[in-house]
Amino acid sequence: MGQNMDNSMSKQMTGTKRKGRGLNKVMREMISTLLYLLIVLSVTYFVIHYVGQRTEVWGASMESTLNHGDNLIVDKITYRFKDPQRFDIIVFPFQYEEDTFYIKRIIGLPGETVQIGLDGTIYIDGEVLEENYGREIIKPENVGIAVEPVVLGDDEYFVMGDNRNNSSDSRTEVVGNIHRDDIIGRAWLRIWPLDDMGILKHQ
Questions:
Q1: Which residues are catalytic?
Q2: Right CATH number for 57-199 from 2.60.40.1170, 1.10.3720.10, 3.30.10.20, 2.10.109.10?
Q3: The pTM is what?
Q4: pLDDT on residue 4
């Protein structure tokens, strides 16, 4: 009888040990899964806030370079190491509407003077701006505030849409000059539509 009791206790202890090992395995798997999700979320947060993010073109102000509905990846890291350059296509928030972003091309750099003649000619510090991308001539009624010299501050940029006669940009007081700190990033890659997928040429 004593032997039977010992055998019974031994079986119960073995069952308890197996049950304990099973619980430990489940806990390890749960912790492993949580750590994996935490890493994925951290990497996603880092990429979205510091490296790049997706944005969609809305409207026709950048035609024919960018079209309504184009999906882009915005490079948010380059400007952490160098300043924006002339002709870069940048993304920045519209100050009068929450969660609204503009996509425009840099025309004037900090410290420069920008002026647009009534014939549509763009002048930078009194010299004609040479452009190598397709664009239309600015009509006299669309010269805006740049009919007078616009002097840019040490951290200001003058931006315009490529669709020069259908763009709200630095020629209007609503947009005005864009401060360096307001630039989110540089339009880098078009991912949609698939037929036009590829790295964007800025000049």
A1: 61, 104
A2: 2.10.109.10
A3: 0.75
A4: 53
